[in-house]
User: Which sequence fits this backbone?
């Protein structure tokens, strides 16, 4: 950002430092990594391990429909849920062994309960000790 002001005679310029927009941001990873995709638009979600040499090692849980709980304690919902094994296999095939991956549950897993706003939750682990991060793909 640039701020432009008028100067008067006698004004002195202050020293400024520019940080280029491409300066890398430090990844503030979490372990486990818990992405959530919610309706009604179901935007794809990207999982990324903070360490560039780390990979997504496994998923502890994947739920699509009306799963319950929070990161570290997810469970399948009593109604409107896709088969837990199918969701786990889908996410594992898309992500395990990669540094980052994109999950799009609606297009890949279908609609387990038409007319209901759903969510996809997952709990993944990255190799290494810096964890990972999640962001919505737009």
Assistant:
């Amino acid at each position: 950002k640039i701020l432009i002001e008028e100067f008067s005679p006698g004004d002195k310029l202050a020293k400024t430092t520019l940080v280029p927009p491409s300066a890398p941001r430090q990844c503030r990873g979490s372990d486990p990594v818990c992405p959530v995709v919610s309706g009604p638009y179901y935007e794809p979600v990207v999982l990324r391990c903070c360490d560039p040499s780390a990979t997504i090692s496994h998923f502890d849980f994947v739920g699509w429909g009306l799963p319950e709980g929070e990161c570290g304690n997810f469970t399948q919902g009593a109604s409107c849920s896709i088969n837990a094994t199918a969701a786990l296999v889908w996410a594992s095939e898309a992500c395990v062994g990669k540094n980052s991956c994109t999950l799009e549950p609606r297009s890949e897993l279908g609609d387990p309960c038409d007319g209901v706003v759903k969510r996809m939750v997952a709990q993944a682990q990255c190799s290494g000790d810096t964890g990972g991060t999640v962001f919505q793909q737009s």
In short: The chain is about 10% helix and 25% strand. The CA atoms of residues 48 and 134 lie 6 Å apart. The helical segments are 84-95, 105-109. The beta strands are 36-38, 45-49, 56-65, 100-103, 119-126, 132-136.
